[in-house]
Amino acid sequence: MQPDTESHPVREASEELLRLEGLTVHFPVRTGLMGRKQFVHAVDDVSLDVQAGETLGLVGESGSGKTTLGYSILGHYTPTAGRIIFDGNDVTGYSGKKLRELRRHMQMVFQDPYGSLNPRMRIEEIVAEPLICHGVITDRDELRNRVEQLLTMCGMPADAASRFPHAFSGGQRQRIGVARALALDPRLLVADEPTSALDVSVQAQVVNLLQDLQAELGLSYVFISHDLSVVRHISHRIAIMYLGKVVEIASTAQIFNAPLHPYTEALLSAIPVPDPKSGWHEQRVQLGGDIPSPITPPKGCRFNTRCPKAEAVCFHEVPPLEPKLDGHWVACHLVAPLGSGGESAHKAAELSRSAPQTPN
Fold first, then answer.
1. Which of 35, 162, 179, 266 could make a disulfide contact with 150, Cβ separation 3.0–4.6 Å?
2. Beta carbons of 120 and 114 less than 8 angstroms apart
3. Which one, of 326, 330, 160, 175, lies nearest residue 245 by Cα?
């Protein structure tokens, strides 16, 4: 799929739907011969927001914490610290009846379209299940009509309702998964790698469907992926995660045209280029080693063990996530903050104006 940011411009500021404040999620584990208790630092002090009708892309390598963050938003994991604010209400740690009610407004689109649908249930039963569980519709005919409406909305024929999941392709199953997620009229969808198991051509169809539904229903998305090309096509803003922390947040255009964090630069340089003569990625950024263990993350900047630009301060002090340019937040000691007049900030501003566009 070829990205096209012009078809999905950055939104103007609007109503805030979701805000995370210092969200932290640690999991206890036993390690060593004596079974010493330690903690996996899955998510550490993450703060971000999602506006109504906006798509926030969440990007990072495997082990970066992006999926844990997505599940925490939906209440599957109880935060160790921090707050989750949804539609102006603090919903941190909701459980039982409160969590059940919250999930009417937040739903998940899963990564695996094959494993997320019960093979023993007809499509009508699968899509209707949330409506029945929450007691939204009890009349059988009304329920059938609602299922057909949802399937049609997601590009599936109405007669699909009477069939079983094995009768459909991966792309069709993902459309059915989206239909099920929309059954309760949620305001927010967390999409966890929803296209990674699909062929490239089918990926584009699913992404286009999500965009159409967003325009029609005013949905907000947290779109989790390791594929920056897909994220660029659908996202208004992008948050880059590394080892449990957000290291950069900016508009999609800013991330692709003038990345400021060395990790973001490395991710962008790894994107395959259809035309090698285009001049894009003239110098590929090579990262050494693997992501450190989230049980014992590095002191200071967590990227310091792999960063080609690391300086002494990076090994001792945690860089705060702060604005470096207008609307561009970065956690890096090597980029001067907004208004400081530092050389790095001036250089970033110059790059923002003059950087070449990625190929379309």
1. 179
2. no
3. 330
Instruction: State the average pLDDT over residues 54-68.
Output: 94
Section 117-126 average pLDDT: 94
Burial class (CB in 10 A: 0-12, 13-18, 19+), 275: exposed
Tokens of 217: 């229903």
C-alpha torsion angle, residues 356, 342, 255, 86 (rounded to 10): -160
> Where do runs of H (alpha helix) occur along 50-112?
66-73, 96-102
pLDDT for residue 343 is more than 50: no
| 85 exposure class (CB count in 10 Å sphere: 0-12, 13-18, 19+) | middle
Name the residue among 346, 314, 344, 323 with its Cα closest to residue 242.
314
- Looking at residues 244-260, what average pLDDT do you find? 95
Decide: helix, strand or coil at residue 267: helix
Segments of 32-80 assigned E as strands: 36-51, 55-59
176 backbone dihedrals φ, ψ, rounded to 5° = -65, -40
- Beta partners for 343? none
For residues 39 and 29, is the Cβ–Cβ distance under 8 A? yes
Q: Given this model, what pLDDT does residue 200 score?
A: 86
Pair type for strands 322-325 and 328-330: antiparallel
Of 226 and 33, the structure prediction assigns the larger pLDDT to: 226
The residue count of the chain comes to 360
C-alpha distances out from residue 250 to 240, 257, 325, Å: 9, 11, 9
H or E, element range at 229: helix 228-234
pTM for the full predicted model: 0.87
> How many Å apart are CA 319 and CA 331, to the nearest integer?
5
Nearest-angstrom CA–CA distance, 241 and 231: 14
> Model confidence at 34, in pLDDT bands (50, 70, 90)?
confident
Q: Which of 170, 284, 270 is nearest to 226 (CA)?
A: 270
CA atoms within 13 A on the CB side of 165: 20
